[in-house]
Write a structure and sequence with these properties.
260 residues; mainly beta; Methylamine Dehydrogenase, Chain H; 4-stranded antiparallel beta sheet; 3 helices; 45% strand; globular; disordered N terminus; TAT_signal_bac_arc; TAT_signal; Twin-arginine translocation signal domain-containing protein
Amino acid sequence: MTDINRNRRRFLQLTGATALAAGVGAAVSGTAGAQASAWSAADSPTGKTLNDVVQTSEGPYAVGSGGLVLARRANGWETVLSKGPTVEGNTLTGAGVTDDGEHVWFAGGSGVIGQYDVVEEQLTDYSAPGGKTSSWEDLAVTGASGSETVHLVNGSGEVLSGTKNGSGGMDWGEAQKPGSGSSMKGIDFASASVGHISNTSTKIYETTDSGGGYQEIGIDGQGGNLYGVASVSKSDVNVAAGNGIIYQYDGSTWTEINVS
C-alpha cells in the first residue's frame, strides 16, 4: 500500500465551519518535511462540518455534511459535489482513496456510497448495495483504481466488502457482524490483507485475509467509545478514544496514552 493511502488517518477531524488547513496536502503525504510543516487556515467555500480528508493524485479531497465534497485546486478549495452521490444531501462521514490516488470513495447517511474519478472528474453512485440503507460510519480502500476493494462499516455493527469488476460494477460480499452489534466507528487497512476496525464498545477487530473474517484483539478492561483507527501493521495499531486518549497496540499489548 502506498503512502497516499496508508497515511489517511482520522485522528484529525476537520470541524472548521469556514476554514480548512492549508497544510492538509502535506499532512497526509507522510513525508518527513510534512511533519515539520506548520498548519495555517485557508478559505473554504462552505460553513458545513467536514468529517474526513484524503490525498489523491490530484491533491486533497474533503467530505462532510450535506453530501459535500471539496477539492483543493491551484486557487484554493472548490466544491466538487454539493449534495453527495445521490443528490439527496446525506452527510458523508468517511473517505478513502485507491493506491494510485485516482479514485476517491466516500460514504455516509442512508447507505450512500460514491466513487469520484479525480482524473476524469466523473462520479459513480454505488449507494445501498443489496438494499442496505444503514448509515456508513467509515470506509477503507485497497488496490489500484479499476480493481480496488472497498471495506465499509456501519452503525448496525456490520462490515461489508466489495471489489470492482471488469465492467465497472462492484461485486459485494455478504455483510459480517464481528461483534455484538455495537456501532462500528473506524476502519483502516495496513495492506491488502491486514486491517482493523474499532467500535463503540471498546473493541478492536483484526483481519489478516482481506476482510474474509475478523477476530477480536482488545481492548480488555477499558470503557468508553472508540473512534478512528490507524492500521500500520499487525504490530502497530493506534486508536483514538475519548478524553484525549490514544490506545497503541504492538501486536500483543495495548498501551493507553493520554495526550490531553
